[in-house]
Amino acid sequence: MKIGITGASGMLGAALLSRLSRTLKVFATSRSIGVKDKNIEWNCFDLTNVVLLNQWLEKSQLDVIVHCAAIVDVDFCEKNISVATNLHVNTTEVIANYINSTKGTLIYISTDSVFDGEKLTTYSEFDLVNPLNIYAKTKLMGEELVLSMNNGLVLRTNIIGWTQKSNSSFVEWILKSLVDNTPLNLFHDVYFSPLTVEELSLIIEKIIYNPIYGLFHCGSKGSVSKYDFGKKMAEIFEISDSNINSISVDDMNFKAKRPKNMTLNSVKLSNKLNYNIPGPVDSIIQLKKQYQICLKNFF
User: Fold this and answer.
1) Can you give the residue range of the structural domain that contains 15?
2) How far apart are CA 163 and CA 12, in angstroms?
3) pLDDT tens, residue by residue, 245-283
4) The pairing of beta strand 64-67 with beta strand 159-160
5) CATH number at residue 23
6) Structural domains counted in the chain
């Protein structure tokens, strides 16, 4: 089985490469080379270059593609609509058309931001979408292309993890701020269902060997506010949380509007896979274990 991964040098892409290359041949593409292994074949190019993308697809002859590539800077997307559309929509259409013609499988990594956040309880796959910004709108357009396929799978998620690049991810920013005791402003009114990239990679691996298709939510079991997430992270990492300030997302002057409730109900996926997805606290505990392993290996 030959697996393709777009956005392979990103946080999720790197985790997928590390896991899948143990047993499978993986064809990775990104703007720069990431994880290296004898079972990983890299081809770095601009994914929005349709000619190069088609060449990669034809050459690789892939059975499964995990489409991770995305512009996660929401405000950047708001100011660069064509760039966001090219990556989230146009490249997805090219990949979907190719995989459909070869009867392969496309796994599309989507977002919990497709909802407007007005609901007071968790969002299921049956809830109506109402994206508030360009990022979410273009990701939703990508979803629609994948769901029209014969063998397409959409996973809506919200991932956390380590990038090995200082202060470049949500949890790395929190940890550095806690360690440096610098002011840390976290939203008390934004709720999400964070899942580590390692956990999502494990779930995707299960799906590759036992395919499922359609739309599934893939978040942690339960939710937490960004503020409480930071407080719990400080507790688990045994660092003072005195520098954490509770603020409202309404206090921020963001270019793009954000939903306040991004909580995902992932019962459908959990039942389908017969797998117990961990909760937010479990995810933070997992992050600490990974961090300790990294420190041990480094020193």
Assistant:
1) 2-298
2) 9
3) 999 999 998 999 999 999 999 999 999 999 999 999 999
4) unpaired
5) 3.40.50.720
6) 1
